[in-house]
Structure formats: structure tokens, C-alpha cells
Amino acid sequence: MRKSIKIPPQSQSAPPPTAAVAPSKIQFRPRKIRKLINPPLDPLKPSPPSPLTIAPRILKPLSSDGEIELALCHLRRSDPLLSALIDSLQPPTFASSARPFLALARSIIYQQLATKAAQTIYARFLALFAGGDDGVSPDSLLALSPEQLRQAGVSGRKAGYLHDLAENYRSGALSDESILEMEEEALLSALTRVKGIGVWSVHMFMMFSLHRPDVLPVGDLGVRKGVQAMHKLKALPKPLQMEGLCEKWRPYRSVGSWYMWRLMESKAAAAKAMPASARRPASAQS
Predict the structure, then answer these.
(1) CATH 3.60.21.10 applies to domain 100-208
(2) Residues 31-48: what's their mean pLDDT?
(3) Cα angle 247, 104, 237; round to 5
(4) Cβ-contact 243, 216 below 8 angstroms
(5) What is the DSSP string of 123-141?
(6) Which fold has domain 68-94+216-268?
(7) pTM above 0.85, yes or no
């Protein structure tokens, strides 16, 4: 005769049993409990619209076809002050650029140099490689001694920076492929670990080499002066103030920043064209 086992009822607050029930020769297969997330749909009624049917648009580089037009349309709608400036100037262009490694090496060479001097030194630098810029690679750069780089006009300090960049590539910490895929914050963190590459250099690299659409170089003097002039501020805006004033440009802050440079250039050109007597302060004219 089989023994029947009575299982006492569980209270709702009690946790489910974790130990096996005392001896029984009958094995019970556990039943799968299917949790219904949504109630079954009525085939005669239309399905309710999903709130996630529209995916966010993936931003493309500014050099992609039609991207500048989309940026200008957004900036005109979001910022009336910037809209007037956009209408008065030619639109920006972001042409294709060099490989990330070559672009970073070039940015190191150009640091703190006048444009003409930097161009001369960079041409001599490229002449050290077989095939010119196509021959510049981490291995070929590391094969050059600091003395060879100095003979081309590269300072000893910058020669060290160039070798550190090449070592980061050789070790696998950086690569052209990873740089192209990184988000802005990760890229900023990775590149500023390289000697001689600071936040400003990374911002310029992201804007003009990678053509990232939403970079705001809060430390750039030209962009800060442009924001100050456009908003008629008494003092140069600090980084946090820049973030707040330019938030409306997102996700095209790179383009908004580009117009700040053009604004200051136009003001400088207008001041240069002004007669000398008009440029003097009123106190000097009396």
C-alpha cells in the first residue's frame, strides 16, 4: 500500500522550499512556469503601436553626403543667433583626411608652430619615409632615431612624443581601427595617455580628421571668443558656461564651433579694413 505524503500549504510570505522533500520513490518532473509578459492579442483588434518603433538616427561623419545640410537645418531651428551667422557665410566643408596614425603624427609636429614653419618641417618629416605619407607607420617611425628626426627639424621633445605614439600602436593600445570605432569620451581618454597629446589636440583631431559631428572644444580661445561675441558677454565663457550655451547645438556642436571661428575671422577682417582713426579708442581721439 502506497504511503500518501501530505504537503502543508505555504503562506504567501514564505520563500519557496530549497531542500528536497523527505523520502519518496515517486519522482515528480518539475513543471515549467511560463510568464506572460503581455496578454494574448485579440486577432480582431489592431496591435497597439510600440513606443520604440522609431530608432535614433546614427550620426555620420560630417564628410558624408548630406550631413552638413542636416546640421545646418538643425542649427538654424535651434539657435536664432547662429541662424543669422549661417546665412551670412559659406557652409563648411570637411574633406577626406589622412589615416588616424598619420593625422596624429602631423598634429604633434604642427604644435605651437606657425603654419608655414610647420608645413616645411612636416614635408621634411615625410621625406624620411620611402613612399612619403604612405610609408609612415608605427614601425617605420620607430626605426628612425631621434637624431634623424631632429635633422628634419623635429624638436627632441616632439621626437619623443612621436615615438610614444608609435609605441602605443605597436603595443596594441591604439590602432586606426579602434580609433575610428571609439566613442568621444573613450577616445579622449585613450589619446591623452600619449605624451604630447592634450585635450585640445584630441578635439581638433576628432573634428578635422575624424569629422565627428558633436565635438565642443571648450578650451579653444577662438570658439570661446565667438560665443562671447555672439551672446554679447562681458567676459570669456568658462567651460561649464560654454556647455550650457552650446547645448542647443547638439548633436552638431562641431559645426557650431566652426562658425565661431569664422565669426571671429570676419570681425578681425572688418577691424583691419577699418580706418586707423576709427580703430583708436575715443579717449585717444580727443
Answers:
(1) no
(2) 48
(3) 30
(4) yes
(5) HHHHHTSTTGGGG--HHHH
(6) Endonuclease Iii, domain 2 (1.10.1670)
(7) no
